[in-house]
Amino acid sequence: MYYVSDDRESKSKIYNDTNFRFNLSTHEIICRLKNKLNYMLKHFLFLSLLVPILSSAQIKITLKISISQKTTDSLFVAGNFNDWNPKNEAFRLKQKDSLNYTIALNLPKGSHDFKITRGSWEKVECEKNGRAIENRNLNLTVDTSMSVNVANWADNFKQVKQEYHYGDHVQVVDSAFFIPQLNKHRQIWIYLPKGYSKSTKKYPVIYMHDGQTLFHANPPRADEWAADSIMDSLIRDGLKEMIIVGIDNDEQDRLKEYNPYDSKYGKGEGKAYVSFLVETLKPFIDAKYRTFKDAKNTAIAGSSMGGLISLYAILKYPEVFGSAGVFSPSFWIAPEIYADVSANLSRLKNNKIFFVAGDLEGSEMIEDMKKVHSILNPDGLNKNMILVEKEDGKHKQWFWHREFVPFLKFIAK
Q: For the chain, which has fewer Cβ within 10 Å, the N-terminal or C-terminal residue?
């Protein structure tokens, strides 16, 4: 029990129980209450900072790989977590014995697709009879391990190169267009609206990466955007006509070529690649075809690493690219992008950026995309900065094919 005196002269409080007895002045009581509140506030702030760290924490997955025959080649894991690079040294498997390998990975929580290769897609795993297998899948929620049995390799079977045919309005501009900024050659594609040859008018242009899977092929492929088919359909419905230019990627160095910053995968070549688009390719396209040359009528778009380099391009050249489509961007590989977004924010006065990703691509991708979007559009009132999060979205071409429709409508406004 306690007793509180009402001695106004001393302004003291007397607390008494069976264990102790002490006097506290009013000032001392206030100080102790302040200290207690400060202590609670510090712990609250600590926990508030800790929650997002824990929510984006990575999960450890140990893959145990068994093969049926000895090989002198190194084994690698390629998946949507390393941009499907078939020979990424950071994802080389450790050999335990002649038939067994292992690798420990730290990946974001969520769904991840992968396959095992011997250093190239010509040497990817397949079924025992040589048929291609579906992507293997990891749905990570807790630390775990997974056993994988590789039945055979694609290069053990006679490979017949598939011949693809495209619509007559999809053309190869040059099968070996020179990139002076990188001292490389690359195939360049172009889609011209069906009415192009019968008109004299000019057209807006969209520059897109990963040209190999950009247009609809015959026989059909599972991993294509079919951007030309979408554009044809939307034009029939009244959307304004646009030209699409596709640039093939460098399959071996895609992680470097589409990254403007250095990373553990090598020296970034993205700055030089974007310079090529602005200084070499765009002037060539503008001279050869009837195009509107201004930023308002020039867009850039891509997915994954292509989403990263598209955002970088509009940040560095907002006077060239008026709009950008950033599909499932690989911001995880380029943490420097946040500083670049902040530094170039004032330059994006009338530019339009369309962000989209799916919940099934992993929480880290969604969080990274929202972080960039929050810098660009902190109060959410800028209608030129759109963020779309789809519950069913996966890191696959069918998803980007579908979301290409709202992107086109967005930039056509």
A: N
